[in-house]
Specification:
With 425 residues, the protein is of the alpha+beta class. The chain has two domains: 171 residues, Beta Barrel (OB fold (Dihydrolipoamide Acetyltransferase, E2P)); 220 residues, Chloramphenicol acetyltransferase-like domain (Chloramphenicol Acetyltransferase), CATH 3.30.559.10. The protein is built from eleven helices and 19 strands. The strands form five sheets. Strands 9, 12, 15, 16, 17, 18 and 19 form a seven-stranded mixed beta sheet that branches. The chain starts with a strand and ends with a helix.
Length: 425
Amino acid sequence: MSIVEMKVPTIGESITEVTLSQWLIENGAMVKLDEPICEFESDKATLEFPAEATGKLVWVAAEGDDLEIGALVAKIDTSVSVPDAPAPKTTAPVVESKKEVVLENAAQPATTNGNGSYAKGHPSPAASKILKENGIDVSLVVGTGKDGRITKEDAVRAIENKGAATSSPAATSKVKTESPTPNTAPSAGNLFARTTSTKKMSRMRRTIANRLVAAKNGTAMLTTFNEVDLSEVMALRKKYQEQFVEKYGVKLGFMSIFAKACAKTLIEMPSVNAFIEDTSLIFHDYADISFAISTPTGLVVPPIHNCESLHFADIELKLKALAKKARDGSLTLQEMSGGTFTITNGGVFGSMLSTPIINAPQSAILGMHNIIQRPVAVNGEVVIRPMMYLALSYDHRVIDGSTSVTFLKKVKELLEDPYKMFLDI
C-alpha cells in the first residue's frame, strides 16, 4: 500500500494556522491529482487545497479543526485506482452525483446546474447528513456557501421551513444543538419557546475581533467630525454619468470621488498617511487606500494602490473587481496586503454617525455615512441640501488634533467643490 500524506502547506509568512472550513470530497471517495479536496480559511482568505496524488481519500482532520502549518489533513491511498466516471444516473444518491461533478478531468463532467461549478447545489458532508436524516430533497435547497454550495446552515434552515409548513416540531428537533426537556417540547405556535445554539466563530471573524481589540487598546484613538454638502458632487454625477458610463463602462460612484479627495489631501498632509513603528514614523509619498467591504464571513479591507495617480474610472473598476472577489471569497493574500489609509462607508446600511476603528498599522480611517436631505443655512437663508456626516478616527500619537481637523476640512472643501480635484488646486 502506498500512502501520500496531505499536510497544511505554507500559505504566507504571517500565517501560522488555518481552519478546515469544509470538505469538498467525501471520506473514502476517489480523488484525482490536483482536484480540490477541502477548503482552508486563513486570517485573510479562503483557499482550496488540491490533492497531491490520485487515489482513495481518507480524512484525518474534521471540519472546523484549527490546524497549524504542516499538520496532517488527510491521506491518499494511491494503490487504489480511480474508475472511469460512470454516466450520470437520475436515481444516483446525492453523494455519487457530487463525485462526478468534482472530477475536473472526466470526459463528461456533470453540470446539472448549468454553470460548470462543482460546488453549486451540492451539500457539505454535514449538510448532506442533516438533509438525508430529515428526508429533504437536496434539489429544493438553495445553497448560500461559496459557488452555491449547500452549507449546514442552509440545511438547518430547510428543516425549519419544512417544520413551519407542516406545523410539526419533529423535523427541527433533530438539528437543535440543545434539545428541549422531555415532555416540555414547545409547539410550533408557542411564542415563548426559548432555544439556544452554539456556532464556532470563523477564523476571519476571530482575526477581525483580535485586531479591533488590539487597535482599540494599542493606540491613542479618538474621532473628529464634520459635515459635507454633497450638492455639487451629486450634480456632477447627474450631469456626466451617462457619458462616463459610455466611455469607461462603469458608473461614477461616490467612492472614487471620496478616494480622490482623500488621496490628494494625504499627499499634502503626509502625517495622516504615516505609520508608527517603535520610536520612528514611516511616511509614504503615495496613497494606498483600503476600502472596507462587507462579506458573508466578515469585513475585509483590500487596498487600491496609488489612488493619487489613478483616474476616477480606474478606481471604480478596481473597486468593483475587489468587491466581487471579496464576496466570492477569492481575494488573494497579495490583494489584501498594504494600505496606508482606509475608507469605510456605513451609509450604505443606513448609518447616520459612527466612530470607525483604525485599521492598524494605519493611523487614520475616514467614515462615510448616509446622505440626508436636511435644512441648512446658506448665505443667511434656510435651504434643503444633501448632507453627510464625516468621521475621521486617528491615532493621536501620530496625528495632532489640529492636523486631523485640517485634514477633514480639506476633504470637505474638495467634495463641496469637486472641480478643484480636476484642476489640481
